[in-house]
Design goal:
62% of the residues lie in helices and 0% in strands. Helix 4 runs antiparallel to helix 5, helix 4 crosses helix 10 and helix 6 packs antiparallel against helix 7. The protein is elongated, with a radius of gyration of 21 Å. It starts with 9 loop residues before the first helix and ends with a helix.
Length: 142
């Protein structure tokens, strides 16, 4: 296979540019990747915030950001979720924070992994490594 130029009529190219201008294009970088629109103070932590901290190798900040989570302005957390996040924010104690986690183990899965990792390894980098690879990659790519 060899790359080659393909002749394109100017009118066809103009029509395609007009189409994008009128109708837009598929957004591969929407809310899932970059989070809700708005100021961080309003929407809370977004995936790219965590990714930036990871890329800067500031793993303790990444843990704090993950534990902070999205704002209640855009997400309706349960009282257990709010208690868990508040306990981490005020104590930075993984053991105390784990005691506050919701009983439903399908909620706050990444956060639970982080706290268990901190208890086991005592190190933010090692705790981050307990989160599945595809999630860490998602954050870095955001």
């Amino acid at each position: 296979w060899k790359e080659q130029a393909v002749p394109v009529r100017s009118s066809h190219l103009d029509a395609m540019v007009d189409r994008v201008a009128k109708h837009g294009f598929i957004n591969y970088y929407g809310e899932q990747r970059v989070g809700d629109a708005g100021q961080t103070e309003f929407v809370g932590v977004r995936s790219f915030d965590v990714g930036r901290a990871l890329l800067k190798q500031n793993f303790s900040l990444a843990v704090d950001l993950i534990m902070e989570g999205r704002s209640s302005n855009v997400y309706n957390p349960t009282q257990e979720e709010m208690n868990t996040r508040q306990t981490w924010k005020t104590t930075k104690d993984a053991r105390a924070t784990l005691k506050e986690f919701p009983k439903n183990r399908n909620v706050m899965v990444r956060e639970r992994d982080l706290m268990r990792g901190l208890l086991r390894y005592g190190d933010s980098l090692e705790a981050v490594k307990t989160v599945p690879h595809n999630t860490r990659t998602f954050w870095a790519h955001a």
